[in-house]
Amino acid sequence: MDKERQASLSRIIHYTFNDSAFMIMALTHRSFSAQHNERLEFLGDSVLSFLIAEELYKRFPRIDEGDLSRLRAQLVKESSLSAIATSIGLGDFIRLGEGELKSAGWRRPSILADTFESMIGAIYLDGGIEPTHQFVHRFFETQLNEIDPKLIQKDPKTLLQELLQSKKSDLPIYTVVSIEGEAHSQTFTIECIIKKSDIKTQGIGNSRRIAEQEAAAKAYQLMLEII
């Protein structure tokens, strides 16, 4: 990655790396090199979660832990992160292998979201918590200002579990039906089973969590029809 492109990205993210190796690693997908960004993604995910949690804690002193968790989940979910990454053109800088380039991997939400988290991890290691906080605040300021705690949406798994508990029914069981694709681009099929109600649904997604949520959403709708 040449100096001109590094400088271009630095202007976009409003941060100049002391060690450009962190930037390059954050942009390197596993399809490009054995030295890839997944460890930085792991770190960035945790740092982002902490910083968003801290911001929500300060902004909403009367909201309980459960609702704070749901607000945070909405802010850091894949679609939110990939939208931010897309808005700043991060996909143009991701280093991808030939297969991912052919399949337009730079536009895939999971890759965009993962790279955004990797960048957070890289900034944290390079500059510490303060510039990382500034980075996160800059790109999440609009979402944070628009949050309405009255409109907190529970995810399908939570809705399904609460509904079943209210009916004193068995809790759902989630099982993996299949995992297809290469390690860096997998598709999960998950089955949600509610034995007492004889309900079985399936969800498909590029992560186990997404597939479970889809299966839970279908099961929740079926439960509403029979109660």
From TrEMBL:
Keywords: Cytoplasm, Endonuclease, Hydrolase, Magnesium, Metal-binding, mRNA processing, Nuclease, RNA-binding, rRNA processing, rRNA-binding, tRNA processing. Its EC number is 3.1.26.3. It comes from the Bacteria. Homodimer. GO terms for molecular function: double-stranded RNA binding; identical protein binding; metal ion binding; ribonuclease III activity; rRNA binding. GO terms for biological process: mRNA processing; regulation of gene expression; rRNA processing; tRNA processing. InterPro entries: dsRBD_dom (IPR014720), RNase_III (IPR011907), RNase_III_dom (IPR000999), RNase_III_sf (IPR036389). Signal peptide: none annotated. It holds the Pfam family Ribonucleas_3_3. This is Ribonuclease 3. Belongs to the ribonuclease III family. Its cofactor is Mg(2+). The active site is at D45, E117.
